[in-house]
Amino acid sequence: MEMRYDLATNFDNKLIEKVAPFGIVKCLYGMLSEHIIGGGRPSFTIPNISQKQLKGHIKTAHEHGIKFNYLFNALCSDNREFSGKTNLQIRDFIKHIQDTGADIVTVGSPFMLKLAKNTAPDLEISVSVYNDIDSLERIRAWEELGADELTLHYGFNRNFKKLEQALKSTDLNLRLIANNTCLHDCIYRTNHANALAHSSQSNHESGGFFLDFYSLNCGKEKFESSGKFIAADWIRPEDVHYYEELCDKIGKTNLTLKLTERSRPTDWLVRVVKAYAEKSYDGNLFDILNYRNNEFTQVNRTPFIKGAILGKARAQKMRNMQEAIFPAQVYLNNKDLDGFIEPFIKGKDCSEHICDISELKNEKKNANSCSYCKDIAEKHLKFVGGDKARENCLKKAINSLEDLERGSMFKK
Known about the structure:
Layout: E1 4-8, H1 13-19, E2 25-30, H2 51-63, E3 67-72, H3 84-99, E4 104-107, H4 110-119, E5 124-127, H5 136-145, E6 149-151, H6 160-169, E7 173-177, H7 189-198, H8 213-224, H9 227-231, H10 240-250, E8 255-259, H11 266-278, H12 302-309, H13 315-325, E9 330-331, H14 342-345, E10 354-355, H15 358-361, E11 369-370, H16 372-380, E12 382-383, H17 386-406
Helix pairs in contact: 1-11, 6-10, 8-17, 13-17
């Protein structure tokens, strides 16, 4: 089979015109900067478009043979779905999204799936990665609820045996996120998803104000142990053919790869699509992975300005935190990773191991430890500006985390 892709949209119609000729993008996904349910990104990082622009963008996508998936993927809806007034508002909004021409909605809870099915039965229902679909039993349960598509837990990305079992177990479309850089087996994921949900819900008491403690920790852990950049469950363009061959071997075609990120400029997104279409990329792998860098430009600072005025947090401390969240760049020659995935194809299972980070923490090596990713990072990954830049980033992250944890972010 030829791999199909879902692509994040920044709502630039030129993006559609530029990626359509590659022929691999089957669906775009995105949402308004805020709505009653909320989604998986804070509103201050999402393009602020009107409902009219949304409808026009979907129309343009359809003209190029591309579907549109609207995101209702808040892991927590603040119990709004269980209150009479807001339940009706949610139903009205779902009907409106159907009227815009959207083909699919992504949900973040079983009840939201049922609500969407009953409100707009013609819409296909996709289930968010935030629901941690990490077993065959969970796949079966969501299928019985009526889902049409499932985004699998990151643990499937490099576990080919488990992925094969999943594909065989269902005819639902299954998605893997290909170019994210989330920490492997991240303990912050569920709490992060909850926080993000409230940061994009309309009329929420936060007003879109959100200090991203979780992304700050993500960066800190990577600066402490560069192997975590490698352990993140991304999939290189060069390795996509292994997933296609797996599908061919078992006679299944129900696999899609999802490409992020909605806050990126058009040229960056086109670069990502081109790399995966050609199954090759020459240059820094992190130029096509969702790592926070200077091209992560869509940030509305209004909630933070208001937050400072209202005394929600101290202005200078927030500026320091912003610098810490957008750290120094890393460089990893993508072609140096040729052959990287082979141990996983042969059965290597990360769930059976503990990542060895003893080079920085001087810990006693665990019997189940694995240094595969650490060794690759030590050999190939570089910080732009050298180790001094890494140490500076780590110091900034630690300082901002202490500001949050000790309360000095909020008071003198």
